[in-house]
């Protein structure tokens, strides 16, 4: 398994990866903006890109904007490795808190974050729109990145 920081030129591959994981895909243009304003880590475990995480940092706080692993690569600890790598990246940049939002019905992601030590600090009602059904509430979770980050700096 290897994790690297995404670079300019990765936008189309990131959009394709996102589209293979999420029902509502993000465009290459969106990833172009994230490459300028956020850190994107890409995990390879056999395929060139099996998963990714997008991390935004500002004023001593970090936020995981999205995280995903290809269906064929799930259940192998790859998401756990990506969250730890992102936490290490944030801790190395003096971020004291790491936040994220997760759909209340997303059992896999909630178990992932709870297992890593995130705690609930808020709830956003009807946060994620869903075609044909009521919008899903989101939980706001938080942890101290230094508690779970590894040594990666990803400069
Ligand atoms: C959520 C997701 C990222 C997990 O990826 P993954 O690589 O399979 O997760 P890992 O193998 O690292 O699992 C880590 C922990 O997550 C939890 N978990 C993962 N998949 C699970 C599942 N299907 N059911 C219940 N718990 C699950 C477990 O606690 C697991 O720890 P364990 O292996 O010690 O039991 C993946 O399912 C995914 O990409 N889902 C679609 C996108 C998404 O929902 N992203 C999260 C947005 S907030």
Tell me what the structure shows.
The protein is of the alpha+beta class. It has a single domain (2-148), classed as Aminopeptidase, CATH 3.40.630.30. 32% of the residues lie in helices and 37% in strands. The protein has helices spanning 11-21, 28-37, 78-92, 107-116, 145-148, and strands at residues 2-5, 39-44, 51-58, 61-69, 97-103, 119-130, 133-143. It has a seven-stranded mixed beta sheet with strand order 1-2-3-4-5-7-6, sandwiched between helices. Helix 1 (11-21) crosses helix 2 (28-37). The two termini are 19 Å apart. The structure holds coenzyme A.
As laid out across the biggest beta sheet, the strand order is 1-2-3-4-5-7-6
Write down the overall mean pLDDT.
Answer: 94
What's the CATH H-level homologous superfamily? Answer: Gcn5-related N-acetyltransferase (GNAT)
Task: Note poorly predicted spans.
Answer: none
- How many H/I helices? 5
SSE-based structural type: alpha+beta
Count the domains: 1
* Gross morphology: globular
What small-molecule ligands were found?
A: coenzyme A
Largest sheet: 7 strands, mixed
Number of beta-strand segments: 7
Q: Tell me the distance between the termini.
A: 19 Å
Q: Determine and state the CATH class.
A: Alpha Beta
Q: How large, in whole angstroms, is the Cα Rg?
A: 15 Å
Helix content: 25-40%
């Amino acid at each position: 398994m290897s994790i690297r920081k995404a670079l300019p030129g990765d936008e189309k591959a990131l959009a394709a990866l996102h589209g293979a994981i999420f029902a509502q895909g993000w465009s290459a243009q969106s990833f172009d903006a994230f490459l300028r304003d956020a850190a994107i880590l890409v995990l390879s475990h056999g395929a060139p890109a099996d998963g990714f995480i997008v991390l935004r940092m500002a004023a001593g706080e970090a936020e995981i904007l999205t995280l995903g692993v290809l269906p064929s690569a799930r259940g192998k600890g790859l998401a756990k490795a990506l969250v730890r790598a992102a936490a290490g990246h944030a801790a190395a940049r003096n971020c004291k808190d790491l936040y994220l939002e997760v759909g209340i019905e997303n059992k896999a992601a909630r178990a992932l974050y709870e297992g890593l030590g995130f705690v609930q600090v808020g709830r956003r009602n009807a946060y994620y729109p869903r075609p044909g059904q009521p919008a899903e509430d989101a939980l706001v979770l938080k942890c101290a990145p230094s508690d779970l980050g590894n040594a990666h700096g990803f400069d």
